[in-house]
Amino acid sequence: MDPTTGTEPIVHEVRIRAEPETVFGFFTDPELMVRWKGREATADPRPGGIYRLCFNDRHVVRGEYVEVSPPERVVFTWGWESDDSPVPPGSSTVAVTLRRDGDETVVRLEHSGLPEGEREQHHEGWGYYLGRLAVAGGGGEPGPDRAQAA
């Protein structure tokens, strides 16, 4: 339970047919990030470095890297660059753990600190995007991101 919001973190797991070293880059390298989500990314993968992802003209996420431990773990803060956002930049945290399992990587994502009214939308969003990550991380092409057209 998150003591600041009183909610449980959103948790997703996905298996990717790739090594953790490969998958890790999809959370830290801007060119790889936009293969599975968004159209433009800025990343400075070190504690305190910027994490920024532009999905479209209206939806931009900004935060900071908190922990960068290749190839097992990356943690960054998350929030929307919008004056009226209930999740402002840096107000929630995304923790990603990568674990090798044979010739696959198990990606576990936990998003904590979300207000109750934002949990369902973020849960659905992460499910959609982790499905895209599984394709891109495994060397495939996930196709157009639905958020780019919004």
Specify the CATH homologous superfamily.
START domain
CATH fold annotation:
Alpha-D-Glucose-1,6-Bisphosphate, Chain A, domain 4
> Into which percent range does the helicity of residues fall?
10-25%
Termini separation (Å)?
A: 33 Å
Discrete helix count: 3
Secondary-structure map with pairings?
Layout: E1 10-16, H1 20-24, H2 30-36, E2 40-43, E3 50-54, E4 60-69, E5 73-78, E6 92-101, E7 104-112, H3 116-137
Antiparallel strand pairs: 1-7, 2-3, 3-4, 4-5, 5-6, 6-7
Walk me through the structure.
It contains three helices and seven strands; from the N terminus they run βααββββββα. It has a single domain, classed as START domain (Alpha-D-Glucose-1,6-Bisphosphate, Chain A, domain 4). It is 23% helix and 34% strand. The longest helix has 22 residues. By secondary structure, the chain is an alpha+beta fold. The N and C termini lie far apart (33 Å). The model has no long low-confidence stretch (mean pLDDT 94). The protein is globular and about 45 Å long. It has a seven-stranded antiparallel sheet with strand order 1-7-6-5-4-3-2.
Key phrases:
single chain, 150 residues, alpha+beta, Alpha-D-Glucose-1,6-Bisphosphate, Chain A, domain 4, 23% helix, 34% strand, globular
